[in-house]
Amino acid sequence: MATTPPSIQQRVMHEQVAALYATTASATIADVIVSWAVALLFWWKNGDSMALVWITLHSSQLLRYPFQAAYFKDPAVAERTAFWARRHRNEMLWYSGTWALAPWLMLPRADTSMTAVLVLVVLGVTSTGIPAVAPRWASVLGFAPPMVLGLIGALLWQGGAVDLVLALCCLVYLGVSLYIAHSQHHLLAQTLQSRFEKEALAQQLEQQMTLTRQASEEKTRFLAAASHDLRQPLHAIGLFGAALEQALRGQPAHQHALRLEDAVRSLHHSLGAMLDISRLDAGVMAPERQPVALRETLLSMHRLFAGRAQDKDIALRIRTSALHVTSDPQMLERLLGNLVENAIKYTHQGGVLVTARQRGQRVWIEVVDTGLGIEPAQHELVFREFYQVDNPSRDRSLGMGIGLSIVRRLSTLLEHPVSLSSRPGRGTRFRLSLPLAPAGLPAATPPAAAPTEGELPRRVLLIDDEAIVTQGLMALMHTWGVELLAAADEGAAQEAMRQAAEEHRPVDVILSDMRLRHGVSGLDVARRLQAATAPPPVLVMITGETSPEHLRTLEHTGLTVLFKPVDPQLLRHTLIEGRRVAHHDFRHFAAGARSHTVDPGTLQRDEGQ
Asked: Per the CB 3.0–4.6 Å rule, which of 126, 150, 454, 600 could disulfide with 272?
């Protein structure tokens, strides 16, 4: 049997003693009334002066009440629980002892009625007092036995037949009362012990949860810092790679530059997928539900993945539909894109079929493949991050196992339930259930891709304290014919802006990192520079931060945000767009109602359309 920890034993004892002293005042008042009524009755009825002697003795012990009441004023009562337990037991002995004297001093001879009255009073005091002292067994023994045994002794001393019968009844009563009192004491002690054990377990659980939460927060901070530090050099590698690709065109080494860009693009895709998960978990991707024409969405899927299916020599059949659903067009496209991409990835012969059918007020979009299939035990596992079926060696050609995790998050966010059915070795069916759009409402179509060619800005200011990033971007901008001014802090940026203004060659675009040295906010620095310039240049933020708090902050900036490592073509596209709106209407671009964040996947979607 497990031993109760000392700390719980101490708490149980403290509660027991507190229960004893809680009834002190009311019990004292009741005892004064009963004891004086009994003494006056015997003095009036029998003219016995011993009744007055007894009430004097009994009342004198009640003068010890202030010693008991001191319990409530003791500031160290929790540490002195054992002391107060002993004091209460001793007080019960004194109290019970004076009641034990009552039969010896007042019990009349040959007066059965008064004898019965005294017996009833003593046993009544015992029965009403036992529940109050039951929390501590020592107090029960100090309270009940002395007064009842005193009554039994006086009755035996009388020696009459009635007295002997009453004495026997009192003895039986005492035994039964002690048995009940012991059961009550045991039940109360067990109840208190169980309560405090549960509280201790709850406290331990809360402590473990706190430690787990702290560990999770520390892990998140570590991963965010590691992600930021990893994205910085990767961002620079991508910039240098793009610059080399431009410079080596037409030369034999150009193929090496292309392979370098492919490797960097693969890393872009992996980090972009993890960024999507961070953005979904941060709650910064709020859906804008509207009627969506499925025809355009499904055609977009065909444009995006037809080439990939052809490369694997499998069929991709997408049946277009005139149905309209209520959804966020961009998120729906991303959700379907991940399902189709996953189906193509795990299909080696046969093909992939995408259909849309109306079922009542719902629309089912199904992605069916003839691929490897999924065992029933793995149906939930495949929606977890980094889990992949039949890829124990972590073959990078099969991706990272994040696509279906994004599918689950997007389906939950959009309230489009996704279900899975599969036959191992025969194929898999993913089904999305979407609400049918109300008839008569104009349907949104996926946005047409912005042109990737146009006029680049003449002069760009870069605010970044990473020298390697500055050098890479400078090399890339040089191949594009764009003049890049670089600054590592606000002072250098102000000086660059001042010189540009004096030369009448103003800065068109400010590219600023979000986090500068010493915790300085690049966003605050760039906004001050923007506000001090007329006309204000376009502001584009670049960051390698992916923590949920950081992403929520970015969501409310209303600015274009690029996430490191930035695809060079995406950067070029952004600069062209920024240049175009800067020439026409900058305010519309910078103060749009919805913030415009860009990740590497966006460029792939644009190019696919």
From this structure: 600
Residue 262 confidence class, pLDDT cut points 50, 70, 90: low
| 269: in domain | no
SS3 label, residue 540: strand
Confidence label for 568 from pLDDT (cuts 50, 70 and 90): confident
Among 470, 573, 560, 475, residue whose Cα is nearest residue 523: 560
Cα(478)–Cα(564) distance, integer angstroms: 20
Which tokens sit at 468? 């390697």
Domain that holds residue 124: 6-206
Closest to 357 measured CA to CA, from 326, 332, 322, 306: 322
| 364 and 483 share one domain | no
**Which residues partner with 542 through β-bridges?**
513, 562
Cα torsion for 320, 322, 328, 330, to the nearest 10°?
A: 40
Instruction: Say which CATH number the domain at 330 has.
Output: 3.30.565.10
How sure is the predictor about 173, in pLDDT bands with cuts at 50, 70 and 90?
A: very high
Same domain, 351 and 498: no
Copy the structure tokens of residue 323.
């149905």
Model confidence pLDDT, tens digit, residues 15-45 = 888 888 888 888 888 888 998 998 998 888 8
Q: Tell me: do 55 and 108 sit in the same domain.
A: yes
- Residue 273 is which amino acid? A
Closest CA to 526 of 552, 573, 487, 474: 487
- Where do we find the tokens 């991709």? 316
Does pTM surpass 0.85? no
Mean pLDDT of 461-484: 86
